Amino acid sequence: MIGWIGLGHIGRAMAERLSEEYELIVWNRTLEKAKGFRNVAKSPEEVVEKADIVFLSLYDSNAVEEVSKRILSKDIKGKIIVDTTTNHHRKVLRFHELYKSAGAHYLESPVIGSVIPARNGQLTILVSGEKEAYEKALPYLEKLGKKIFYFEEPGKATKLKLINNFVLGAFMAALAEAIALGEKAGIPREELVEVLENGAGNSVVLKAKKEKILSEDYSTHFSIKNLVKDLSYAYDLALDANKTVPLNAVVRELYRVAFEKGLEELDFSAIYKIIREFSL
Ligand SMILES: NC(=O)c1ccc[n+]([C@@H]2O[C@H](COP(=O)([O-])OP(=O)(O)OC[C@H]3O[C@@H](n4cnc5c(N)ncnc54)[C@H](OP(=O)(O)O)[C@@H]3O)[C@@H](O)[C@H]2O)c1
């Protein structure tokens, strides 16, 4: 039996994908989100009691800390924890230590891609942790991802993920500003998107978000709240690396406007709406 903790937007998509092939026991803090799964646990403790390999998909490192306290209250010797949460680069090192001292194996495994690639097993997965544990987790990771990068060094997967999400946020913001400008200059949105996707805007970001922008459907796959968390973590990484990141600051503050406007739970492609409507 495989354990799954955290059934948010991407957690649910990944858990559903795994459940096509494997028996799962799931837990989510808000119980209603576990609807549709056959084995729903009452607590994270119950999940680790019943499963030898347990996936986490939680909002941030504070959530991982809270849930880990509960997991670590049990005897988890030999168990593998695969943490797909996008974590803080320093906190993730602490998680490696905590699980190691409990005799368990912690794989830091942030994922690149969103709900649709997760549903189709098309994610890119970055993994840091012990090789032996990684090899045991590999069949499950392969069900979720098309490209898997393995690094032995703890923290490396998380650093790479944070750097990737800075590019994601910056690229989306650039596309949003470009489309908003084009419209203001009298060019229809459809035409702008078509030219950009055959020009400098051609990217996985535009491919993934094109329909959302054209139809102004900001239903959440990856929330602005989540992206701002990642950009803040990336900023902390920059502070620790003593590297100035001016673009990170601009992009982060741009998305942070969503909190003032009560739009932070929307998909991050809603940055287009924010830039257009609030003349940013
Ligand atoms: N969505 C994406 O496209 C995507 C892509 C790549 C990576 N990620 C990363 O994957 C993780 C999950 O993303 P998501 O989009 O699924 O987020 P989400 O929809 O916001 O879900 C967050 C999950 O964390 C749980 N949670 C939050 N705080 C908790 C706590 N203190 N104790 C227990 N559970 C807690 C939530 O439980 P409740 O339901 O009770 O609130 C929910 O299950 C994040 O780290 C995100 O950065 C997401």
Automatic annotation (TrEMBL):
GO terms for molecular function: NAD binding; NADP binding; oxidoreductase activity. Coiled coil: none annotated. Keywords: NAD, Oxidoreductase. Pfam families: NAD_binding_11 (PF14833), NAD_binding_2 (PF03446). Residues 155-274 form the 3-hydroxyisobutyrate dehydrogenase-like NAD-binding domain. Residues 2-150 form the 6-phosphogluconate dehydrogenase NADP-binding domain. InterPro entries: 6-PGluconate_DH-like_C_sf, 6PGD_dom2, 6PGDH_NADP-bd, HIBADH-like_NADP-bd, HIBADH-related, HIBADH-related_NP60_sf, NAD(P)-bd_dom_sf. This is 6-phosphogluconate dehydrogenase. It comes from Thermococcus pacificus.
